[in-house]
Amino acid sequence: MAEAHIATRAGDALLAAAVFALEPAAIGGITVRTDRGAACECWLVLLRKLLDEAMPLRRLPPHIDDERLLGGTDLASTLGSGRPVYARGLLAEADGGVILMSMAERVPARLAALVAAALDSHSVAAGAWQHAQPARFGLVALDSGQADEEHCPAVLAERLALHIDLHGVHPDDLSSAPIDRAALTRARLRLGAIRIDAAAITALCGAAAACGIDSLRAPLLALRVARASAALDERDVVNAADLQSAARLVLGPRARVLPEVPESSEPSADSESPPQSESAPQSESAPQSESAPASESAQNAAAPPPAHAGEDLDQQLVGAARARLPAGLLAGIGPGAASLPRSSTAGRAGAAILKGRRGPPAGIRSGRPRHGGKLNIVATLRAAAPWQRLRRAQARAAAPRVIVRAEDFCVTWFRQRSETATLFVLDASGSSAMHRLAEVKGAVELLLAECYVRRDQVAVVAFRGRAAELVLPATRSLVRAKRLLAGLPGGGATPLASGLALAHQLADQLRRRGLAPLLVLLTDGQANIALDGSAGRARAHQDALLAARLLRAAAFKSLLIDTAPRPAVLARVLAEAMQARYLPLPYADARALAGAVQSAA
Amino acid sequence: MKIIEPSARTGPDIFPRMGAAFPFSAIVGQEQMKLALLCVAIDPSIGGVLIFGDRGTGKSTAIRALSALLPPSKVIADCRYGCDPARRASWCSECLARPAKRQAITKSVPVPVVDMPLGATEDRVVGALNLEQALNSGVRSFEPGLLAQANRGFLYVDEVNLLEDHLVDLLIDVAASGENVVEREGLSVRHPARFVLVGSGNPEEGELRPQLLDRFGLSVEIRTPQDIALRVEVVRRRDQFEREPQAFMNTWRKHEQKQRREIVAARKRLAGVSVDNAALRWAAQLCMRVGTDGLRGELTLIRAARALAALHGRSAVGSEELVAMAPPALRHRLRRDPLDEAGSTLRIERAIGEQGMALG
């Protein structure tokens, strides 16, 4: 089954390349999940082959500055010519072509938002430009995020129609182009006339809703992909196979719930994928091979979907989408489960960079380099540039080439105060839960409110059963934190050491991002699962104490709230080991608790 | 590399739309958002609109549609800020200094709906020294920014929650005072900048600073329609629009014109809409009951209700208008429990229930 799944990926990757090359700007783009191996290189080579020679192709590094991205004053030419000279930015340069964004998972939120705005308006208007510059481009976002939490920012992924995954795909499967440029050109001419009937639109919307996709961009993009698929296949009417391709490439990867598929029409995801896996990687062109599953699924064959088959079609599309569900989703939830909390905002590594770190500059202001500001030479020269002619006229003989005065000085400011990230480590185990998980949740909510006022980021780690789990990566959205907390299950054993270890790891990450982590550990201290997952109180305690000492060695600020019904020595020992402030919950009224976090920070 | 001449303001077409905007009247559902936008279009003094909602719900579409929907406004032809020939009191210093003959030359321009991109610099927003003039003739002259362009129109900030704090402060300040004061780079300029600030964002990406929330007049929360038929309709219309824009615009022209006439009529009627004591008392009681700070809530509620009454063709504000506008006017002003999800609207509705709909 796994092999079949991967073979489908190869087929999808080929089809996606063809669809994208057909009309990059209308499709928006592709996110490519990849480990940047040979398969990725092969796929990129293949894509390049499909794209017109004349199309501009620009690489967008994650550290690009605003000026290079959007355009701005060209300082050198401005000074040289004595006239303001503006240079186009990368987005405008890519007009009519393709932008390749590598390391999309590391892209800062602001950059993502700027690119997304350009994708929406097909133009760039910023910097010194008086007129909006056309910027119609398609975006290829290479997402090499390893962890679950690292993804291409949602604001971009939302606008890119196609999502493919190259993990495990063999480069050989991507060696031959599914279609040639001449055929693409023919398909492009055909594109305007492709017909699609109302039932098909209904089916796509229905399938999107069944997958729990709220955004209406998804069905709209799926519609475009279906049209493109028909054009590639040299047809003038969108048929069931096109819709299935669209559902697989567009809807499946966006699914947030596991859609229920009645047994009768589409037995399961597994039986849906093999037909493609057999045909797709073959040397024949992928778009043609895509019609294979349709002819096998007897009822609709290659004919356009008749109106009365709306419901059936709906289910077929759900089935197709299901075949491309993200792998973790299938393992994680069952049918009818609520929407996935975590997948909503990815790219958080970028979001955190936006503000509030100690290191990065926080803006350029005019002023003298004092009070922590650093002289910004480029900005200073820019400020001086317009006055050169005047000043030279006023200056006595032997003036320097560029006359800079004190009033021109511009400094870069850095943020001094580092932002706090409060990391809640919750003991959701049976011993804790029986007594007071609800109370603990209440306390955490109060603390969250405190964090909200201070604009802290919050993260939540919970441990129960065998292991600890990162419930909520650092975020400023308290709405999400609260929602997650409300649905947090309790019960099971107490893997305290794992909880501390994970907290340590996370706190380290946060610190590397320039945040000041504050650990708030809520537990009764009664560990019974050791770090390696084995049961046993003694071992578990030793491990927990060791983990606590490591935390202390790393000098994280921390606070331990003892949730035992009667404050016991266990938690106090733990608090001492990690040098945390100790606070027994029974005596802490809610207000005092909130105050405690404040003073600990 | 290309040289672009910084041009004087010629009207709001400085940001040319890439093709026509999706017609406002063709937007499916999202009645709250449309109503809020119509109300501020009728009475800009209500203040800005904050739209929070999921992705792909048509926030941007609605706002970008406004320019085509609203009746064009008359401006003094020479003016860089689009001064209103009929209201001398609001003129910029340049218009006041203009010879009477030039003052009398006017032209019609569409209402500006200016997009403020997330990457805009302070220079670009506020305006800056005109580089070319400074270089060529050594004259310090002012190059108007986005705030000047947005005068008498709308300034739209998508992802307002991601905008740098100092820029948001600046926008709110100018929106409230109606005047942009520039004191920088040796320039000392002030010019009118009366605009409706429209901010949108997705709460899952981060929250807006609480102190900024209540500077917006109205706030709406929008969601994707949960009804499949509605969703299909949204996608169908959008698809039609993209494939055959001209035919689509023709189909909706009548609706757009009707909507425009309603707005024009409502604007005329607005000054004559009365608010009696019972209505004022009802609004005050509601604000006390839900515990909004300050009087801004009541004021906005009354203004919004009056605009709605004008839109409904009534001569007095009734309970229907007050009840309809209470959630958008108040929901973001409640003493916030940040963790109370979607609670604000409910709290207001509950308070209305307790208070009863009857005035007086």
> What's the total number of strands of chain A?
18
Structural class of chain B: alpha/beta
Tell me the strand percentage band of chain B: 5-15%
Main sheet makeup of chain B: 5 strands, parallel
What is the 3D form of chain A?
flat
- CATH topology of the domain at 14-72 and 110-222 in chain B: the name is Rossmann fold
CATH class of the largest domain in chain A: Alpha Beta
The overall average pLDDT of chain A, rounded, is 74
Q: How is the largest sheet of chain B built, in terms of strand order? A: 4-7-10-1-11
Ends distance of chain B? 68 Å
Mean pLDDT of chain B: 83
What do we call the CATH homologous superfamily of the domain at 14-72 and 110-222 in chain B? Answer: P-loop containing nucleotide triphosphate hydrolases
Q: What proportion of the residues of chain B is helical, as a percent range?
A: 40-55%
What assembly state would you assign to the polypeptide chains in this entry? heterodimer
Radius of gyration of chain B (CA) equals 21 Å
Q: What is the helical fraction of chain A, as a range of percent?
A: 40-55%
Instruction: Please tally the helical runs of chain A, counting DSSP H or I stretches of 4 or more residues.
Output: 26
Terminal CA distance of chain A: 51 Å
Total number of helical segments of chain B? 15
